[in-house]
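Here is one chain, start to finish.
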Amino acid sequence: MAKRFWLMKSEPEVYSIDDLQRDGSTAWTGVRNFKARNNMCAMSVGDEVLFYHSNADPSCVAGIARVARTAYPDPTQFDKKSEYYDRKSDPDDPTWELVDVAFVAKAKTPVSLADVKADAELGEMELVRYGRLSVQSVTKEEFDRVKQKAGLR
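Its structure:
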């Protein structure tokens, strides 16, 4: 199967590229949007990810990660103490999935949303067209262009 490319958003005060660099890898918990979940279910080990800091000043691509484990049930949906608890989720038929991602690199130059919007080659990115979606597909060309802008050839 061909490698695919993605963009995953996290608020840096919740979990940043620095946290991922420190931890090496993490489970991407808490996604509660069906399209974002379905995107994670489509991921394969080795797929590459633009790690995006959302609700930041500025919001930006802060680094690169790689899918380290394919989708499996998100345990936070069953944890009554979790802010991501979903009382409707059934352990025998879980609603929410997650993937594990591993650190690859931190951007030498963070690529802001304004930088993306100003680049004609990136005008069709889901980030521009569907800004609020937390897990998005990215074309290889978009991934390579953002990676170049981030100083990560």
